[in-house]
Design goal:
Blueprint (H helix, E strand, L loop, with lengths): L2 H8 L8 E5 L4 H17 L2 E8 L6 H15 L3 E5 L11 H20 L3 E3 L4 H14 L3 H4 L5 E4 L2 E4 L7 H11 L15 H16 L4 H25 L7 E3 H4 L4 H16 L7 H13 L5 E4 L3 E5 L3 E6 L1
Parallel strand pairs: 1-2, 1-4, 2-3, 4-6
Antiparallel strand pairs: 5-6, 7-10, 8-9, 9-10
Helix pairs in contact: 2-7, 5-8, 5-9, 9-11
């Protein structure tokens, strides 16, 4: 049994008759995912649909669209394509974050439109290790160390990653055996993006000078952290303190710091939809608001979220 099949069974990612939207960029990971799901199409009665996002950041990105469309036709799988507006690159903020948000919005809207049961993405074991390192470099807690989830509900859509426990080297070997040449995105070499710098400089350095199995170790750390985080998150949801997004000060002050911090993240996530861009420093500032600042004080967070301390409650709201 290969890692792909093992991951699907271990985490119950796919069941017979599922309708699956597959994010396909044309790169090695997404092509491997597509071919492996296509191989299960008949035996499991899967209904497959391809989603491709043209980020429009390269002059030859249109060739990627044609490549994926041709592949979809050869496999007799329907496809939906979105081309991003070039004006996006002029927006303030992280280009990586903008593109990620646009992809997520397209995948979720397409999944709902075609009534897909799941969205499958091609993240692999090496991606997991890179994600953990990136979050460490930016500053993170237990939730960040959990890395990428193999299965997660995002905005009412189930996202699955059947290749998450498969090393990139096995993906390359799979495509080589099939004689398939993936599309190469030149922006993946640009070190202005943190992930590319981590992938091409930091990981090789750690492998060479510290531990050859650093990728596996980081992936194991992510799995262990995710189990711990899931348990604590469940406990935080059951804990006293009021109903999100209004927490009772008297009760949350008595909570263990680990549970309190998760309770704060849950409240932010309820308003924001996620907790991206919420750092350890933000949580510390809210703790200071709870314990030291006068009634009426407000802490402003990213994405237009604010937290206000009233006489009896901690109130979360959108500005």
């Amino acid at each position: 049994m290969d890692k792909f099949t093992e991951t699907i069974k271990k985490h119950s990612l796919i069941k017979e008759g599922d309708k699956i939207l597959i994010g396909v960029s044309g790169g090695p990971d997404s092509l491997t995912l597509l071919f492996k799901l296509a191989a299960l199409k008949s035996s499991m009665g899967l209904d497959l649909h391809i989603a491709h996002v043209d980020h429009n950041l390269r002059k030859d990105s249109g060739a990627d669209v044609l490549f994926v469309k041709k592949l979809a036709g050869n496999l007799n799988i329907p496809i939906s394509v979105k081309t991003l507006d070039q004006s996006l690159v002029k927006k303030r903020g992280s280009l990586e974050e903008i593109c990620r948000e646009e992809r997520l919005a397209f995948f979720t809207s397409t999944a709902k439109r075609i009534k897909a049961d799941k969205v499958a993405l091609g993240h692999n074991l090496d991606d997991q290790a890179e994600t953990v390192l990136m979050r460490l470099l930016r500053g993170t807690g237990l939730s960040g160390l959990s890395g990428i989830s193999v299965k997660r509900n995002i905005r009412g859509v189930i996202f699955i990653r059947p290749l998450l426990e498969t090393p990139r080297s096995q993906i390359d070997k799979f495509l080589k055996r099939k004689g398939v040449k993936a599309r190469v995105d030149s922006t993946n070499r640009q070190e202005i993006f943190l992930r590319n710098s981590v992938r091409h400089k930091l990981i090789p350095l750690l492998k060479k000078n510290y531990n050859r199995n650093i990728v596996g170790l980081l992936a194991n750390l992510a799995q262990s952290a995710s189990y711990d985080y899931e348990y604590l998150d469940r406990m935080a949801k059951r804990s006293a303190g009021g109903n999100i997004p209004r927490l009772e000060l008297k009760k949350i002050i008595a909570l263990h710091p680990a549970i309190l911090r998760l309770k704060l993240r849950q409240s932010i996530g309820y308003i924001q939809g996620d907790t991206r861009r919420i750092s350890f420093i933000h949580i510390q500032e809210i703790e200071d608001l709870i314990l030291s600042r006068p009634t009426g004080s407000i802490v402003d967070l990213p994405k237009g979220i604010s937290v206000q301390k009233t006489r009896h409650y901690l109130r979360f709201f959108k500005r």
